[in-house]
Amino acid sequence: MSNLMDYLDWRGDLTFREAPFNEVDNLILAQLVYVEFAGIVPAPGEEGTITVKEACELFFAAHDRKEIMERVSMTKTAAFVLEKMAQTERFCNAQLFGYINDISKEEQSQFSVVCVRLDDKSIYVSFSGTDNTIVGWRENFNMGYLSETPGQLKAVDYLNHMVKEDWKKIRVGGHSKGGNLSVYASVKCDRNIQKRIVKVYSNDGPGFSEEMIQSKEYQWMLPKIKTILPESSIVGMLLEHQEKFEVVKSSQSGIQQHDAMSWEVLGNHFVYVEEVAPQSILLDETMKKWIFQLTKEQREEIVDTVFSMLDDAKIYTVDDFYNSKWKKVQELMKAKSKLSSETQELFSQALRMLWKTGNQTVKKSVKQAVLEKVEEANSLFSTDKSKKSMKSSKITLKSNRGINGSDGKNRCFRQMGRQFPRKKFKR
Fold it and tell me: What are the φ/ψ torsions at residue 398 (nearest 5 degrees)?
């Protein structure tokens, strides 16, 4: 099936004046900000712009293809998306400016953003998701206990100071954490800017607290928010969503579906499926129940301890983690033994709660699956010729005891093929 690269081959010869902006264009520009543009794209306050074609030439003059491919991060393909964009009429003359890549260990923040001016005079503000740094990953976990993160505040400030009065058509978007920043910044920025925002794109981005999504400012922006999730979304299912979302088909499975390059494209839109996969729903329910059993203080202590251990082991990037193999893993295990007895007990308690919550969620889903199949069977029997025959043939869990030495659940599982039903999920 086709992906972003195929789309650029197919639609690359059409300008935005000839073919209006669409959801696939959004994901391409959300990927663009993952490219390291430091020293290439002008920063805020610096004059001028640089075209996609010019930026591509400078980037590949400074970076080796082999070095790029050896990186662990799934966002490494963004450089090759840039290369393909530079070869198209649609994107080659798009103007880049306002680039920031700010990583602060002290603030526990990884923040990156770039503005893109298209030939239809519209602006796309592209916020980056998590990069290869451990700092960036920590910021994601901090969302579990902070009402707002430094990255979110920076995103608001960026929009308020970067958006010019003559920008009449603004789109804001991002992938992963970048989707979360896009929504947050659009909800919290000045109202005169909000009025000129035509669409906010969250591409598999985490949600927010219940307090946030129920706020008046969030509700005001809600009609402009478009959330797109892969079928087996994990990242995008985190925290709470109120907006409707589309579910896109992916060529990958599990967490690899988070890779935007796996999202399937047909023409000028994504290939959609009806619902989120059952395993994604189960994981989401398990994590939410588990997290809410922990106090805010417990969540903070767990996150702080884990990332302090990584820092002590001198693991600063995802590549460091994977390349360290057993040596660094052993160091981490030794570090755990140095934890206070209270912290060790907290970890043990949290793991017990996670295990218990997971079992409860699975059991609940199994029970629901069984009851749905029983109900389905009963409805079929209800069409029999007479009430008498219907009564004698009606299936209940009690009347099926003794089948294969067990109760009626065995029959129902055989009818289901031991599969969970594909539950309808809020869209």
Answer: -70, -45
Residue 291 corresponds to which tokens in the numbers above?
């997290």
Mean pLDDT confidence for 241-265: 81
* Cα–Cα distance, 265 to 18 (Å, whole number): 20
For tokens 């979360």, what's the residue? 180
Query: CA 259 to CA 27: how far, in whole Å?
Result: 11
The rounded distance, in Å, linking the Cα atoms of 115 and 33 is: 9
User: How long, in residues, is the chain?
Assistant: 427
Strand, helix or coil for residue 96: strand
70-101 pLDDT, tens digit per residue, is: 775 667 899 999 999 999 999 999 999 999 99
Torsion angles phi and psi, residue 98, rounded to 5: 65, 35
List the chain domain ranges. 4-277, 284-416
Q: Which CATH number fits domain 4-277: 3.40.1000, 2.40.128, 1.10.287, 3.40.50?
A: 3.40.50
C-alpha distance from residue 249 to each of 231, 262, 266 (Å): 6, 8, 11
